[in-house]
Amino acid sequence: MSRAVLIGLGGIGSHLAEPLARTLVFTEYPRAPDRLLLIDGDRYEEKNILRQRVLRHGNKAEETAEILSGLFPKLSVEAKPRYVDVENMYLFVREDDVVFLAVDNHATRKIVAEHVATLQNILFISGGNEEYDGNTQVHLREGGRDRTPPLTWQHPEIQSPADKHPGERACGELIAEGSAPQLLAVNFMIAALMLSAFTLWLQEKPLSYGGCYLNLLSGNVRPESLKYWNARETA
Amino acid sequence: MSEVRSDRPVKVIAGAETEYFDEIEGITVLELRDKLREILNITPDHKIVLVNGREVLAGEYRVAGGDEVEFKKPSGEKGV
């Protein structure tokens, strides 16, 4: 039995969680995971209410699991109130999982990306944004081969992150980073693009792009072509 | 930049934006970046430059007709 694993229940993850759970419950695709694991070591704060549903300012994974369990009682939902790190990664992400990564730091992206690279079969979808723009990356591994690019390909900011893992950041650093402006609309659109890629995979449609870039100001969404990746593979 | 008339325009990509230009053949990618910085919102964070899918040195490569130049946008870092 495969699982959907959602890492990060903040601005993007919180908008992805319910439609993801709804998709898992009400679709009948053979590939659909039948369990959902939510992972986040962070707690909700009052300011989060601007963009997210907040119950009691508790742990984000646990509160989201509570909401989803109420909405979808037949779905197996589990919460881990932890940050993923190199030591627990192998417990949280396993063979045949579908992983959605909605975190705010490249250090965690690298940890997850490096672990994913050790697995034979996995769908790994990452999303992130700045104030008015953002992007998704879709990494599909089948039979130990990369069908689409890994997160680190042509992304040195992930290969060699300059930021810190949240478990290593001081309180002042976390507060400063949390004050950076974000828009609910951009979070929501990135979540939708992540769900879109997952939907195509569920339907066993071939993935024709390695992710998408979007820009709220211009209204543009551009898929990342796989033509150079595929040419590299056959060269 | 003038309206595209060439049958081999240069395609320039930065994030979600794609534009086509002609009459820019022969300039370096570095010069191209300076010209298009505001049009395509290219920032110093766009460290990787790809021409036809291959990484190039911005100060050395001179653009040719039909090239696809991408100023690779780093992955968005926020989202929580």
Question: Describe it for me?
Answer:
The complex is a heterodimer of chains A (235) and B (80). Chain A has one domain: NAD(P)-binding Rossmann-like Domain (Rossmann fold). Chain A is 35% helix and 22% strand. Chain A contains eight helices and nine strands. In chain A, strands 1, 2, 3, 4, 5, 6, 7, 8 and 9 form a nine-stranded mixed β-sheet that branches. In chain A, helix 1 packs parallel to helix 7. The model of chain A has no long low-confidence stretch (mean pLDDT 91). Chain B has one domain: Beta-grasp domain (Ubiquitin-like (UB roll), Roll), CATH 3.10.20.30. In chain B, 10% of the residues lie in helices and 24% in strands. In chain B, a hairpin with a 2-residue loop joins strand 1 and strand 2. Chains A and B meet through helix 1, strand 5, strand 6, helix 5 and strand 8 of A and strand 4 of B.
Please give the oligomerization state of what you see: heterodimer
Unreliable stretches of chain A (pLDDT < 50, length at least 5) are none
Determine the structural class of chain A based on helices, strands and strand pairing: alpha/beta
CATH topology of chain B: Ubiquitin-like (UB roll)
Structural class of chain B: alpha+beta
- Strand and helix order of chain A: EHEHEHEHEEEHHHEEH
Number of E strands of chain B:
5
Strand content of chain A: 15-25%
Give the tally of β-strands of chain A: 9
The fraction of residues in strands of chain B falls at 15-25%
Evaluate the radius of gyration of chain B.
Answer: 13 Å
SSE string of chain B: EEHEEE
Globally, the shape of chain A reads globular
Number of helical stretches of at least 4 residues of chain B: 1
CATH C-level label of chain A: Alpha Beta
**CATH 2nd-level architecture of chain A:** 3-Layer(aba) Sandwich
Radius of gyration based on Cα positions of chain A:
17 Å
Which overall shape of chain B is indicated by the principal axes computed on the Cα atoms?
globular
Reported for the largest beta sheet of chain A, the result is: 9 strands, mixed
How many domain regions of chain B? 1
The N- to C-terminal Cα distance of chain A equals: 36 Å
